[in-house]
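Renewal narrative, Specific Aim 1. Our central claim is that a sequence can be written position by position from structural information alone. The example that follows is taken directly from our test logs and has not been curated for this report. It begins with the structure tokens describing the chain, in the order in which they were read.
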């Protein structure tokens, strides 16, 4: 048995082609770490809402305040109704189900970007369609984006889509029975999430696929950011 130097082994490993998923991401074994991290952040935020009640007030999205307090566009997606833990539980169950299907296939970077765009899409829907002084919170917009992404990713697999149907129906119902959740956020998150998924899934296999995917996601992010800015300015409350 021969002995090899560290540099030789390192160079040899570079030549071994890394395994890739069907959408070009690095294949990873183990738990979906981004999915679990998102759930952990949501649960932590919920605990803070109980420990420090003013937290909820500072996290919810109020369209009229978005231009002055833009962090609400993101933080509102990690806050949930303290009037019903069912709101948090169902959303996190949905994030878990979607995450274990999507993250291993899309990869950590693509899945994280998809979640962020779905979140921003939900906020954009609220800015465009909700009353300026309404207050909205919850991960439902981001979750709607993940659900629609499943339809894009598994559009030919009816068995997987059937498994998600009950959770989808429950989340739609929640939008009408739990205070502070809006169909506007669901709609915005679903549309942007589906577009983000298309930017990843519909790019054909070729040596430039990753670059094309990230370029399309970057372009979509710019479009959503500009739309959010224009919408926030249009409805901003005259605080000064």
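The sequence written for that structure reads:
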């Amino acid at each position: 048995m021969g002995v090899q130097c560290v540099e030789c082994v390192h160079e040899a490993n570079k030549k071994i082609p890394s395994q890739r998923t069907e959408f070009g991401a690095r294949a990873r074994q183990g738990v979906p770490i981004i999915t679990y991290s998102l759930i952990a952040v949501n649960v932590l935020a919920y605990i803070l809402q109980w420990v420090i009640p003013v937290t909820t007030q500072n996290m919810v999205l109020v369209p009229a305040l978005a231009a002055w307090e833009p962090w609400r566009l993101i933080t509102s997606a990690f806050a949930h109704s303290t009037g019903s833990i069912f709101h948090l539980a169902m959303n996190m169950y949905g994030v878990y189900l979607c995450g274990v299907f999507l993250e291993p296939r899309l990869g950590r970077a693509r899945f994280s970007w998809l979640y962020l765009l779905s979140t921003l899409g939900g906020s954009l829907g609220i800015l465009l369609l909700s009353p300026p002084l309404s207050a909205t919170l919850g991960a439902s917009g981001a979750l709607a984006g993940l659900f629609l992404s499943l339809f894009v990713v598994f559009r030919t697999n009816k068995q997987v889509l059937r498994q998600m149907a009950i959770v989808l129906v429950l989340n739609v119902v929640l939008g009408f029975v739990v205070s502070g959740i809006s169909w506007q956020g669901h709609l915005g998150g679903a549309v942007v999430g589906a577009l983000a998924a298309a930017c990843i899934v519909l790019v054909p296999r070729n040596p430039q696929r990753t670059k094309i995917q990230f370029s399309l996601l970057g372009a979509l992010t710019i479009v959503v950011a500009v739309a959010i800015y224009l919408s926030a300015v249009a409805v901003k409350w005259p605080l000064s």
